[in-house]
Specification:
Length: 88
């Protein structure tokens, strides 16, 4: 099933990903500067949490779209998404 996202959803996800990209560059700089391990790890954990929020937003969009599908097809799409999340 192709996802039919609206412009606002796409922009929101792109903005989140741009912030994450900046955070990752910042972590690289922190490593170059030989910053303390706990400072670097805190930023790594922040990036991880931000990526999890992106994943949640993608799944939420998929679930919203599933509401328009026949029940059996919706169950499969939602099950696939949940399965992917639990593998990670």
């Amino acid at each position: 099933m192709d996802t039919q996202w609206d412009g606002e959803t796409i922009q929101n996800l792109q903005d989140r990903l741009a912030r994450i990209e900046g955070q990752v560059r910042g972590i690289g700089k922190m490593i170059e500067e030989r910053r303390k391990c706990d400072q670097i790890l805190m930023q790594v954990m922040a990036v991880r949490a931000a990526l999890e929020k992106v994943a949640a937003a993608v799944v939420a969009t998929s679930i919203d779209e599933c509401l328009a599908l026949p029940p059996e097809q919706a169950r499969k799409v939602i099950g696939d998404s949940v399965g992917m999340l639990t593998r990670l």
